[in-house]
Amino acid sequence: MVNIMEHRHVISALVLNKPGVLQRISGLFTRRGFNISSITVGITENPQISRVTIVVNGDDKILEQVIKQLNKLIDVIKVSELEEKKSVQRELCLIKIYAPTESAKSQVIQYTSIFRGNVVDLSPESLIVEITGSEDKINAFIDLVKPLGIKEMARTGITALARGPKILKPKS
């Protein structure tokens, strides 16, 4: 039976940009038995600091535990949950779609246009499409093109920032 109180949480953490930090974060999740749905890491406007965006599924108790444990790690500067309505959350997906005919290519291009995506590569038998947006938008596009034949796919996982003036920044 699925716990109805369980839902997706997006956690943003500022960490020192140095070797081993991601390993310590993922090790924390492994030791605690928490599953990471997606994780993205990239440098911030300060090259000494990286932003880690982690998506976990669980109830509020799990979220609280994850945030407490992350805050205990020495290289973690600050941690915050990014609520869906109070943040901008995006994912990038590259999809290689089977399209051996002009008709199939035209159909893929039309779908891509509707989803405001881009065709980034074209070969005699396939196209590579770039779709950026919410997880739901990307899943809808995948469902639409699946009957055509997805040859290969890569997703980045979610990255996010708080809306408005709220900023996740190190304490001064």
Structure description:
With 172 residues, the chain is α+β, with helices and mostly antiparallel strands. The protein has 2 domains: 7-81, ACT domain (Alpha-Beta Plaits), CATH 3.30.70.260; 88-159, 2-Layer Sandwich (Alpha-Beta Plaits). 28% of the residues lie in helices and 40% in strands. It has 4 helices and 9 strands; from the N terminus they run βαββαββαββαββ. The chain has helices spanning 21-32, 60-72, 102-114, 135-145, and strands at residues 7-16, 36-43, 49-58, 76-81, 87-98, 118-122, 126-133, 150-155, 159-162. The radius of gyration is 19 Å and the shape is elongated. 20% of the residues are buried. Dimer of large and small chains. One of its GO terms (molecular function) is acetolactate synthase activity.
Q: What's the topology here?
A:
Layout lengths: L6 E10 L4 H12 L3 E8 L5 E10 L1 H13 L3 E6 L5 E12 L3 H13 L3 E5 L3 E8 L1 H11 L4 E6 L3 E4 L10
Antiparallel strand pairs: 1-3, 1-4, 2-3, 5-7, 5-8, 5-9, 6-7
Helix-strand category: alpha+beta
Assign the CATH superfamily of the largest domain.
ACT domain
Low-confidence stretches: none
User: How many domains is the backbone divided into?
Assistant: 2
What is the number of strand segments?
Answer: 9
What is the class of the largest domain in the CATH system?
Answer: Alpha Beta
Radius of gyration: 19 Å
Could you name the CATH topology of the largest domain?
Alpha-Beta Plaits
Judging by the overall fold, what is the CATH architecture of the largest domain? 2-Layer Sandwich
Terminal Cα span: 46 Å
The major β-sheet equals:
5 strands, antiparallel
